[in-house]
Amino acid sequence: MRVSDLVAATGLSRPTADAVADDLIRLGWVTALDDEPGGAPKRGRPARRLAFRADAGYVLGMDIGEHKVRVAVADLRGTVAAEDVRVFEAALGGRERLAVCRRAIGGVLKAAGLRRTQLLATCVGCTGGMDADTGRVLFSGAFPDLSGVNLRTEFERSVPRPVLVENDCNLAVIAERWRGVAREVDDVICVLATERMGAGIVVAGQLVRGHAGAAGEMPFLGAYETHHGAEGIAELVRTRAAAVLTNGRAPRGADVRAWVATPQALAAGDPQGVDAEAVFRAAQAGDPLAAEIVEEALQGAGRAIVTMALVLNPELVVIGGGVANAGAVVTEPLRRLLEQMVRLPPRLEASPLAEHGVVYGAIRHALDDVERRALDRLHDPA
Amino acid sequence: MRVSDLVAATGLSRPTADAVADDLIRLGWVTALDDEPGGAPKRGRPARRLAFRADAGYVLGMDIGEHKVRVAVADLRGTVAAEDVRVFEAALGGRERLAVCRRAIGGVLKAAGLRRTQLLATCVGCTGGMDADTGRVLFSGAFPDLSGVNLRTEFERSVPRPVLVENDCNLAVIAERWRGVAREVDDVICVLATERMGAGIVVAGQLVRGHAGAAGEMPFLGAYETHHGAEGIAELVRTRAAAVLTNGRAPRGADVRAWVATPQALAAGDPQGVDAEAVFRAAQAGDPLAAEIVEEALQGAGRAIVTMALVLNPELVVIGGGVANAGAVVTEPLRRLLEQMVRLPPRLEASPLAEHGVVYGAIRHALDDVERRALDRLHDPA
Prior knowledge:
5-stranded mixed sheet, Nucleotidyltransferase, domain 5, 20% strand, 13 helices, globular, homodimer, alpha/beta
């Protein structure tokens, strides 16, 4: 881009555009290219060509769930350079989980070939209630024994400041508005059926955090069921599929062998032998009994979504997290329920970002912070 | 107030304050008083004393419910000059209900001794989904046979423009922030348990209308119950109290005679013979069985409130409408439920405005419109 293009695109005067270009070059965000080969010399200041340096800095996004942590680094355009996922062993306490998260940071930086000092901002998303102002965890299934832990302080020991802390569902809805299905939508709910059910809520273009940062956290929503997150849905799918196996009925069109990981599990009728994802896949492939089981298991989540649609009257509901990969098997029953129960039903879509939504939202949130600070520096060059 | 006081209060210059005072006098909102008796003559422009003329104009607020309409007129300070309530007979169609509303307008103006031309704005609140932009009813139990009726156009035939149309719950929460229990609160839900359950929602100081104006309208919320508005609560109270009467048990401390309108009703055990408000009063007076019945009847509404508290994490929930008059009998069980079910429970208060909330909110909304237009006229005196 030439400075004259900048003048045309921004409406700035030529001297201002030149000064801003100098500032951006000083910040390292923009690089001045050599003159065009063969370009004729002109009077006045030379027509500098500028290029945005997306690799002038990086941001790190983290998604801490109850069972695993996902980390990604991205350049200033938001292009992901590397991602790292680590599972928490069940017995781990909060301190040990934090150590796993720190190792994931080391892993993702190594995979991307980056040094910690290249990070301009980090955003930590975590399941549960988060105080975004202080970085403190209000409550979280990921850190049941670390009530009040300050994730900002914890991670400032591992990465350069700033470290932003945000609820995972809030980041998921930010991601949907950035590069998901909610790009032009100002009233949207992103439901994250991970371990427990939560929702990121945007009303009139503004994120709703709630008075104490706990908006959208619904351990008991619907008919006060605890099992309507993905884990709960998978558990219900397993239990009901196992009951079919035990009954030994041969349902039309249902290939129950496809639902289990091993032939032994089929014989045993043990719920743990049933592979919930395999039942989702069978439902997608047209197995009517599998579809019935999935639909039944979605009722709890469906009631929670109906409730939110009644309370907030959004334009769009996005199903985020890994469940989104199941596609129409999940969206069709939920759409039917919304049509039945809500007078002005919202659209409902599965997230194309699926299990990457939270970490992408963390990247966007960190980039927003970097851009805001960079503009502050431009305005106040002291 | 002297113009010099205006200068001190606003930080305007003396010439600007004088010009604004002249504008306000021209609009009729301010009157210039005679010089103070005995005041010594001063050099320069005389020290005019100004008084706000609250009676320079009036606004009309209306609250259209399923069973009745309430209308009030107020002056520019919001002081109510008169109120009028009319009950819809059960068999009335939508057109006939509109005629009742128009008669209520005539009635309240007559009671206040005002002419229609003195109205500077009117705000019509109505139960159900309202399109505030167009004035059209999206759906409403008050006008089941008039889907799509435009209340703005309808009432512009009776009163001077502008006629604003708004959902009743939205007006109730506006009233609580104006002169109720939510004066300094930016995250608040006002639950209106009138005929059906609805909620006015304010998030970060902004009213949440929803994508199609239907936010907070919850015909099915909670465990999909339809009976959790005041009507539903009263019905449940009646049914359960009648069951006690029929059983003939003599509960300790319970004076079942106090629950009924007539001795015949006591003998018959007929739910219609039970006076729901009398049961509320008995509960307030310490009748333990009456309190138990009220608490049981509140469970449906309580679940809906728990759900909204989880979804929105407000600072305060206000119980509005006539149910608010029951006080602690209603608030105590609901507070207990919130403490049990919500990790960061909001405060919960009964509205001091009770059944007047919606109409007060309509007055405030109309006054806001008048003030906005007056400022526009001041800025653009063409």
